[in-house]
Amino acid sequence: MKTFSLRKEDIERRWWLVDAAGQPLGRLASRIAQILRGKHKPTFTPHVNGGDFVIVVNAEKVQLTGRKIEQKRYFRHTGYMGHERFTPVQKVLGKHPERVIEKAVWGMLPKTTLSRQHVKQMLKVYAGPEHPHAAQQPTPLVAVEAK
Question: What is the pTM of this model?
């Protein structure tokens, strides 16, 4: 038996449509990360970008479980000593709800150049229900149910 390795010529990409309304952020992000990497396909190869495109709509209606809406903060550093900046997730959801899902998906991916391609080129996140990718005929992804 020979080991199968995916080539660029053999890649078949699909477009998936995910409705984030009422879905838990972490479960949604892990499912999206799997699809971006291509782990749902039998031809998965870790070093080849064989994943699919994902369109996320209704990012402003994503659900944060527990007390995360009050307690979760995003960290960044300005580069100067003692200049740490913490932004509450509630503020980010109000201004740029797409970034919450993008950061959650980025956290679920390995930190490689291939993963940067996944997030920048293959993940499309929109705050509302409208998206400009109707021509690609995206397939709706089955919702992840909250317990």
Answer: 0.90
